[in-house]
Amino acid sequence: MPHELNVVLVEPEIPQNTGTIGRLCLATGATLHLVEPLGFDISDAAVKRAGLDYWQYLKLIRHPSIEAFLESLPPDAPRVFISKKSGPLLYDYSFQPGTYLIFGKETAGLPDWILNAHAADSIRIPMYDARVRSLNLSNAVGICVYEAIRQLGYT
Question: Do residues 137 and 14 make contact, with C-beta atoms less than 8 angstroms apart?
Fold first, then answer.
């Protein structure tokens, strides 16, 4: 895949979202990174019970903590933190091949300390009705992955 995108889920809590995102990553050739602790079991038996028959084909990397994940990144790796608390819009960001798209957990998003430390690399998806607290995580990931692919050129 020419885009070599990485989807990072920090402490995901809802297994159905992670399953949907895993399917998206497989369909688009992206690598899925799961940052622990996870709110569910992804053992082989649990994955089979959930009917995720594609899971073994997924490029999956687990990280024991957000600190360990951040330390594992090459210093020049393009990364973007997605949060409703960020200022710049998704469509104003210029994606690069190999970008790490980093999402927080469903109930709390990314921690403030991460957003503060990486404010220049943080973006948001526009929402036009203030009554909507947030988008579903799997929807947000899909929006961002396909915008990145659009920018980088689909082959």
Answer: yes
- Here the tokens at position 42 are 């992804």
153 pLDDT above the threshold of 60:
yes
Domains of the chain and CATH, by start: 6-152 (3.40.1280.10)
Strand order in the sheet with 31-35: 60-63, 31-35, 6-10, 100-103, 79-82, 122-123
The SS3 of residue 145 is helix
How far apart, in whole angstroms, are the C-alpha atoms of residue 140 and residue 124? Answer: 10
pLDDT digits (tens, 9 = 90+) for 35-71: 999 887 777 666 655 557 788 899 999 999 999 999 9
In this prediction the pTM is 0.94
Q: Which amino acid is at 126?
A: P
In DSSP notation, 25-83 reads HHHHTPEEEEESSPSS--SHHHHHHTT-TTGGGS-EEEESSHHHHHHHS-TT--EEEE-
